[in-house]
Amino acid sequence: MNAGETTKNRASRETWIDAAYRLFVSDGIEAVKIMPLAKTLNLTRTGFYWHFKDLSELHDAIIRIWQTCNTGIILERCAAPANSLCEGLFNLIDCWIDNELFDAPLDLAIRNWARNDARLQALVDTSDQERLAAVKALFERFGQTAEAAHYRALTVILTQTGYYSMHVSEPRSQRAIAGCQYVEIFAGMPPTQAERRAFLTRHR
Question: In the chain, what percentage of residues exceed pLDDT 70?
Fold first, then answer.
């Protein structure tokens, strides 16, 4: 085997994962197979096994992307410094307006996959509890009782889940304007003009 063939066979682990991610989001987990991926990348099946022991290891890599990018970012944004509840909620809602922060198509694809995979469903359930706990903690940080914080957090989570499960499509600026209304509903008080202006400015 010459050097060119070796390079073609091996490529990089990230190349395979990126291709698998894109195929998964567009066509579901059933489409993520070794030979179709190799054909898409113009690589060989042998190259796949330089980086992965089997297909399940590639599947696990997709799950880790979801856990890090989607659940991780929600936890991070809820814990971010904020001077008020509205400011904290704006930090969170950034995730659902900026596609670079939260990958809604990936989240939906993971949930669809989990319907037929008990192990993944358990991970999704755990992730959902972590997300809910993080949003609840944000409300509690600004004086909400545990019960009120729980239901307000649940409303936040279910509202966003409804958006992407129903494939709602809006221009970013329109989504940001709606975000101001949602913050007032979730918090039970209007954001200040300065908070609103700062939020809308970063989503122009």
Answer: 95
Distance set, CA 34 to CA 39, 45, 53, 116, 175 (Å): 9, 7, 12, 20, 38
User: What is the pTM assigned to this prediction?
Assistant: 0.90
Question: 42 near 86, Cβ under 8 Å?
Answer: no
**What does each C-alpha distance from 204 to 97, 181, 191, 199 come to in angstroms?**
11, 17, 18, 9
- 116-144 residues labelled b (16+ CB within 10 A) or e (exposed): eeeebeebbeebeeebbebbbebbbebeb
Whether residue 193 has pLDDT greater than 60 = yes
The confidence score (pLDDT) of residue 6 equals: 47
Question: Dihedral sign, CA of 176, 134, 66, 13?
Answer: positive
Whether 175 contacts 97, CB under 8 Å? yes
Task: Measure the CA–CA gap between 49 and 54, rounded to whole angstroms.
Answer: 7
Query: Rounded to whole angstroms, how far apart are CA atoms 129 and 132?
Result: 5
